[in-house]
Structure formats: C-alpha cells, structure tokens
Design brief:
Distance between the termini: 23 Å
Strand order of the largest sheet: 2-7-1-8-9
Largest sheet: 5 strands, parallel
CATH topology: Rossmann fold
Order of helices and strands: EHEEEHEEHEHEHHEH
CATH architecture: 3-Layer(aba) Sandwich
Oligomer: single chain
Number of strands: 9
Strand content: 15-25%
CATH superfamily: P-loop containing nucleotide triphosphate hydrolases
Length: 192
C-alpha cells in the first residue's frame, strides 16, 4: 500500500475515558468528508457493539492470522492477548470513496499511524482536564471491573507523557468547546 500518494488522515488518540470517541462521532456528523476507520480487535464485542461498525471482531486467532498476512498498517498488543489494529483494507476503502480517514485509536497506535502517514496525517491528542477527572469518567461508564479501571488508569499515566508528540493537544474540559476546536482544526488541515 502506497501511503505517500493517497488521501488524508485525522488521528484522534487519548487515554481511555478522555472523550476522543465522543469527539470523533461528533466530527462524523459535520459534513467535513470524513469516514471512520473501523479498527480490528481480538476481544469479544461488548453488549452494545456490532461487528464491522464498532470494531472488526477477529478473535485472537483471527487477529494473529491477519498479522501473518501483513493485513495491518499498524497493530499493538494493548493488554495481554488483547490486540487492536488498523486494517489496510479499511484505509483503501475510505480513500477510494474520496474521503479522509478519521481514526479513534489509543496513543501508541496514533503515534504509529502518524509515522506511517507523515504529512498526510494530523494527529490530535485529547487530554482530560485532570487524572482524577479521567478516573471519574471511567467509573461513570459502569462498563469496567475495578481491575480494568486500575489497568486503564495505569496505562493513562504512561499515555499522558506522549501528548507533546502529537500535532495538537486538545484539552477536553468542556465538550462543546472541544467539539468547536476539533472542527476548526480538522477543517483547516483538510483545506491544505
């Protein structure tokens, strides 16, 4: 896949609970010509998730098979036997429709994508107002066990250290303001 002569990409990364998914869903409704890149994962779907819409649920063996086939632009083992990645076929599909790809990925995945796409990508780090607020948001979800919340908070500590490696750090302390700023940033990048 020739990444240098293709369309543009918008990358949103953040620690879990910072609000990146909410912002990405908002941007998809704005008419900016964006299409969501559905990530692949090895885990089972959660109660409200649909295959091919929220994620491509490949299962552990299916995911490992795709790695062998070199089907990913990037992939990562986020937690033990819990893989996430971006399928090349997703990017090709979106670019063939003349749209820009928008990613909702974890921090390391976002940095890996930025390295791949270089100047054709704009990487935004969504930062929570504070570490404490991040924990409050994760607890409000009521979808995670105490152990999972601890894991996510430990990971967030490491991820927050990478914020400066992104093109822009968007602090999400007021969701409406974050929406507005995200729209401005994306529109400006797509006009270049």
């Amino acid at each position: 896949m020739d990444l240098k002569n293709n369309g543009k990409c918008i990358i949103f990364s953040a620690p879990s609970g910072a609000g990146k998914t909410t912002i990405v869903h908002h941007l998809l409704k704005t008419g900016l010509g964006l299409e969501f890149s559905v990530s692949a994962c090895s885990r089972e779907p959660r109660e409200n998730e649909r295959d091919g819409v929220d994620y491509h649920f490949l299962g552990l063996e299916g995911f490992k098979e795709k790695i062998k086939e070199d089907a990913f632009i990037e992939w990562e083992e986020v937690y033990t036997n819990n893989f996430y990645g971006t399928l090349k076929s997703e990017i090709e599909r979106i670019w063939s429709e003349g749209k820009a790809v928008i990613f909702d990925v974890d921090v390391i995945g976002g940095l890996n994508l930025k390295k791949q796409f270089k100047d054709n990508a704009f990487a935004i780090f969504v930062q929570p107002p504070s570490y404490e607020e991040l924990e409050v948001r994760l607890r409000k979800r009521s979808t995670e066990s105490e152990d999972k919340i601890r894991q996510r908070m430990d990971k967030a500590t490491k991820e927050l250290a990478f914020a400066s490696e992104f093109d822009y750090v968007l602090v999400n302390d007021d969701l409406e303001q974050a929406f507005t700023k995200a729209e401005e940033l994306v529109a400006e990048f797509l006009e270049k």
